[in-house]
TrEMBL record:
Pathway: Nucleotide-sugar biosynthesis; GDP-L-fucose biosynthesis via de novo pathway; GDP-L-fucose from GDP-alpha-D-mannose: step 2/2. Keywords: Isomerase, Multifunctional enzyme, NADP, Oxidoreductase. One of its GO terms (molecular function) is GDP-L-fucose synthase activity. Transmembrane segments: none annotated. Residues 8-235 form the NAD-dependent epimerase/dehydratase domain. This is GDP-L-fucose synthase. It comes from Hydrogenophaga crocea. NADP(+) binds at residues 12-18, 109-112, 144, 171-174, 187. The active site is at Y140. Belongs to the NAD(P)-dependent epimerase/dehydratase family. Fucose synthase subfamily.
Length: 329
């Protein structure tokens, strides 16, 4: 029986995905003292020297690279330099320092925005680098593509000689506990939760949603994503090589179905309990027309999402209420 790693470093443990990975590790009885965590104040991952010193000191056996600067369309449009620079630096520093200290197993978390704007649906792993990206989040997407290629390159150069096995997972749109509910810089689900909640409290007769409402998106609960991360990390090298094509190191992680933004807004309004009118502002950007990922390869490896969208939205709204209450205490 395979023994658990002595040390697991979760980069970005305060973020939505990182915190969910920690919850999954603890639920699977990993010793908390062997889960290595650092806040941004304790370790700036854009600081190469600091990251190398950390790896030299802690020497983890596995690394989950969930740290990233993330945001929605507005944030990506407003801070493109921040999104490409910070994410490139985080990825390069962590992956290289991990290699230098003998970390053989690393999992990099990317994003579905790596695929071309007009990629064939559902998007398969082979669609990477086959067409132009969505302009509104191109800097972030390019950084994430670079992360995938870093993992591929270290595998190609050091896989046989050093036993390097760095893997990447590309989640679809994520939501759930630990999300960012900022009024301007959030993704669509937390943004809608906040707006409908505030509209309910203010008894607003209507809420306006960005865009036409026609684009279709796939949404995956963050606890499902965390479970997929552990599943992929635990796959033995032989199984991984058989399922993932040579020279490719990433797998899609999706829910398997999508909804229109209009349908999503109606569902969030129902979960929140807002009964006013919904309207759509077509002067605001829609982004990619459709983003549905094929998770067939991961499903063939024994993993499938379990949390339905409505059930997941209920938990996400409860998380928002809990955090709102804590801010008011």
């Amino acid at each position: 029986m395979k023994s658990a790693p002595q040390k697991i470093y979760v980069a970005g443990h305060r973020g939505m995905v990182g915190s969910a990975i920690v919850r999954q590790l603890l639920a699977r009885k990993h010793d908390p003292s062997n889960i290595v965590l650092r806040t941004h104040q304790e370790l700036d991952l854009t600081d190469q020297a600091a990251v190398r010193h950390f790896m030299q000191t802690e020497k983890p056996d596995q690394v989950y690279l969930a740290a990233a600067l993330v945001g929605g369309i507005h944030a990506n449009n407003t801070y493109p330099a921040d999104f490409i620079y910070q994410n490139l630096m985080i990825q390069a520093n962590v992956i290289d320092a991990a290699f230098r200290e003998g970390v053989r197993r690393l999992l990099f978390l990317g994003s579905s925005c790596i695929y071309p704007k007009l990629a064939e649906q559902p998007m398969r792993e082979e669609a990477l680098l086959t067409g132009p990206l969505e302009p509104t989040n191109e800097p972030y997407a390019i950084a994430k593509i670079a992360g995938i290629k870093l993992c591929e390159s270290y595998n190609r150069q050091y896989g046989e000689s050093h036993g390097v096995d760095y893997r990447s997972v590309m989640p679809t749109n994520l939501y759930g506990p630990g999300d960012n509910y900022h009024p301007d810089n959030s993704h669509v689900v937390p943004g809608l939760i906040r707006r409908f909640h505030e509209a309910k409290l203010q008894r607003s007769p209507a809420v306006t949603v960005w865009g036409t409402g026609k684009p279709r998106r796939e949404f995956l609960h963050v606890d499902d994503m965390a479970a997929a991360c552990l599943h992929v990390m635990d796959l033995d090298p032989g199984t991984w090589r058989d399922q993932v094509k040579p020279m490719q190191s990433h797998l899609n992680v999706g829910y398997g179905d999508d909804v229109s933004i209009a349908e999503l807004a109606q569902l969030v309004a129902r979960v929140v309990g807002y009964s006013g009118r919904l309207s759509f502002d077509s002067t605001k950007p829609d982004g990619t027309p459709r983003k549905l990922m094929s998770s067939a390869r991961l499903e063939a490896l024994g993993w499938k999402a379990r949390i339905t969208l409505e059930t997941g939205l209920v938990s996400a709204y409860q998380d928002f209420l809990n955090r709102s209450q804590n801010r008011h205490d």
